[in-house]
Automatic annotation (TrEMBL):
Keywords: Transferase. The keyword Mitochondrion does not apply. InterPro entries: Acyl_CoA_acyltransferase, GNAT_dom. This is GCN5-related N-acetyltransferase. GO terms for molecular function: acyltransferase activity, transferring groups other than amino-acyl groups. SUPFAM superfamilies: Acyl-CoA N-acyltransferases (Nat). Pfam families: Acetyltransf_1. Residues 8-163 form the N-acetyltransferase domain.
Length: 169
């Protein structure tokens, strides 16, 4: 359903991926890693936040699709998608720091946009206003702000908008 240029692939998450997912979540919480406290306490806070996020996704998006983003067989990120009646919700996307800014997230996003367009669906997502790299990526792919509460922007991509061919960043 989501076609990517090789060697980039999406694959289902398995129980064997948990250590990777833990490391990925830790790498995505730079805000908490900056806390001036005992590193074990900070790690415990991060683990609790990961549990809250996992439970929240399970509760709000019970039918969500969870994928590992792999490059040449190596896990480099994850994406969580929820296919609804009117849109595909990008619930979460995260890439390990060494693989950021190399086009993987853009290619995944384009693949989901192409699948949404083929199904006559739009896309939606929420992004924090301080996450400038993500906001720039989404805007460059045609997403527009639907609402803004001062902290989080709700962004949408209309299904009627033509999608450019998939190209690396």
């Amino acid at each position: 359903m989501y076609l990517l240029p090789e060697p980039l692939v999406l694959r289902d998450i398995t129980p064997d991926d948990q250590l990777f997912l833990d490391a990925l979540y830790i790498s995505s919480r730079e805000d908490l890693l900056q806390i001036n406290a005992d590193p074990e306490i900070v790690l415990q806070i991060i683990k609790q936040q990961q549990q809250v996020q996992t439970a929240g996704i399970r509760d709000v998006y019970p039918g969500a699709q969870h994928f590992i983003i792999a490059y040449d067989g190596q896990a480099i990120g994850r994406v969580v998608l929820h296919v609804g009646e009117r849109d595909i919700r990008l619930v979460d996307i995260s890439i390990l720091p060494p693989y950021r800014n190399h086009g993987a997230a853009r290619l995944v996003l384009q693949s989901v946009q192409n699948a949404a367009q083929a199904q006559g669906l739009g896309m939606s997502m929420a992004v924090t206003k301080v996450n400038e790299p993500a906001r720039h990526l989404y805007q460059s792919q045609g997403f527009v702000v639907r609402s803004d509460d001062g902290v989080i922007e709700q962004m949408v991509w209309p299904a009627s908008r033509l999608q450019a061919p998939m190209t690396p960043a």
